[in-house]
Specification:
- Helices cover 30% and strands 17% of the residues.
- It has 481 residues and is of the alpha/beta class.
- It has an eight-stranded parallel β-barrel. Strands 1, 2, 3, 4 and 5 form a five-stranded antiparallel beta sheet that branches. Strands 9-10 form a two-stranded antiparallel sheet.
- Residues 1-8 and 450-460 have low confidence and may be disordered.
């Protein structure tokens, strides 16, 4: 099927938001080049990404560090992070803020020019043992599993006043996703339609009270088009009226089911791409904005990303293929005084070297992960800058092929122990799974390893052991230079 590129800017406007496409084809698929603008926020050139937060902060980065040492334009915040026990009166609801301002923005101390996107669940979401109901979402809070009533989510969006509100979607995660039957898919469409209507009605009433208006981005389900036809027809009507500001995709295949009238709306993909190769595939299909959980995962694993999307560096390919990142706990970095990536201009690469990062991670100093997070997000920024230049130059397809020939498919796995994580931050693999974190405390008289690590001998430390016996076992042994 032939396509015609749209060179003259076309846009979709929803009051405080405007989205202008500089380059796309008439069918809406294919790589798109655009600009997303909100009142009093930095414009976001697309394709781009949203930084994923944990309890309002990008992991390992304080807000001032993010502001001074990164180019993050927008963040995704999950309401799930703030809900613990009933009744629902978390402190974030009552955070002081300027008149008609956002209590959520004030509570997390987010800079004023950054886009604030609020969704119901973390990214990537953790599978819950109970399914969603007609009126609620099943979520995982810091104190366990519970249900979030859709009406409570709508109430939260009215109180917190983010820039973008993501509508609730009846999406199934985990292994149950592959076992969905026709009736369950129909229910997904019916529930999501009802929840979208309720959200739209409540926020429109709120806007009549002269509060700051939020842009509603509606979900498209990861099921066949016929299973959500009524939902798609309703979204098409809303798009024509200008009542929604964007679309949220949970499966990249949903783009094929989108009506032509929604071509001009920005598309946010919550698809959890596992690496840059998958990001390029989804951009080629027409995604504008991404969430990238692999950035935080790489930082936690002690991996420094090194990939680039430059025509000059990816034109011919290399054998063997280059790695997408470096395991900074590997022994070859012990005395390496080179920056993490030679062409990176981030604070970490400008001020520190690989040996220092290796030392920090080996000593489990939190600064190591801070510096890695700054670097990895800088790599993501440079990656998307290169993609936008490539689309503008009309060489995106060739550059993607060159990138595939240059870099390995998978991100490297870290070999060290990352920072301690909470139960709601990882997907359980079963009832008998091993503990993710090492035990922080031990019983008073529990055997403890002494002496050289290679010896592997264990001895019992108690008040009955004298100093001479400890010396013979190698405890606190000193080496003379």
């Amino acid at each position: 099927m032939s396509s015609v590129a749209v060179e003259s800017p076309v846009s979709s406007e929803v009051d405080i938001q405007s989205f202008q496409l500089q380059k796309c084809n008439v069918f809406g698929d294919g790589a798109r080049l655009g600009t997303l603008c909100f009142n009093n926020r930095n414009p976001i050139e697309t394709p781009h990404y949203l930084a994923i937060t944990s309890r309002g902060a990008v992991p390992h980065l304080s807000q001032d560090t993010m502001r001074e040492n990164s180019e993050i334009k927008g963040v995704y915040v999950a309401l799930e992070d703030y809900l613990e026990r009933l009744p629902l009166h978390p402190p974030v609801y009552s955070a002081p803020c300027p008149p008609h301002g956002s209590p959520l923005r004030s509570f997390i101390a987010l800079q004023n020019d950054a886009l604030l996107v609020l969704g119901p669940r973390r990214l990537p979401p953790i599978h819950t043992p109970s399914s969603n109901s007609y009126t609620s979402l099943s979520i995982l809070t810091s104190v366990g599993f519970r249900n979030l009533e859709v009406s409570d989510y709508i109430c939260a969006t009215k109180k917190l006043r983010p820039d973008v509100v993501i509508g609730c979607a009846d999406v199934v995660y985990g292994e149950a996703k592959a076992k969905l039957g026709l009736k369950r898919k129909e229910k997904m469409g019916e529930r999501t339609l009802a929840w979208t209507k309720a959200l739209l009605a409540e926020l429109q009433d709120e806007q009549e009270l002269n509060y700051t208006k939020a842009s509603i981005w509606a979900p498209i389900l990861p099921v066949e088009g016929e299973m959500q036809r009524e939902l798609l027809d309703y979204l098409e009507e809303l798009a024509t009226l200008g009542d929604i500001g964007g679309l949220v995709l949970y499966d990249i295949g949903s783009i094929d089911d989108m009506p032509a009238s929604m071509i001009l709306l920005p598309r946010l993909a919550l698809t959890d791409p596992k690496g840059p190769h998958r990001v390029l595939d989804e951009i080629a299909l027409g995604v504008d904005i991404f969430s990238l959980p692999f950035l935080n995962a790489a930082t936690d694993a002690g991996v420094a990303l090194t990939f680039r999307f430059h025509v000059s560096s990816c034109g011919k390919g290399r054998q063997p293929k280059a790695v997408l990142g470096l395991d900074m706990l590997a022994s070859e970095h012990v005395t390496d005084l080179a920056p993490l990536e030679a062409s990176c201009g981030c604070y970490t690469c400008a001020q520190h070297h690989r040996a220092f990062i290796h030392h920090l991670l080996s000593a489990k100093e939190m600064l190591g992960w801070v510096l890695l997070q700054i670097h990895n997000h800088a790599i993501a920024d440079a990656f998307f800058n290169g993609i936008r230049r490539s689309i503008a130059n009309g060489t995106f397809v060739d550059d993607c092929n060159a990138f595939g020939k240059t870099y390995e498919k998978e991100l490297p796995a870290g070999t060290g122990v990352g920072p301690r994580i909470r139960g709601y931050q990882f997907q359980p693999s079963g009832v008998t799974m091993e503990k993710t974190n090492a035990s922080a405390y031990k019983k008073l008289n529990e055997p403890e390893s002494l002496g050289d690590d290679d010896a592997g001998e264990e001895s019992l430390i108690s008040s009955s052991v004298n100093a001479k016996d400890l010396e013979e076992m190698g405890f606190a042994k000193q080496t003379k230079n």
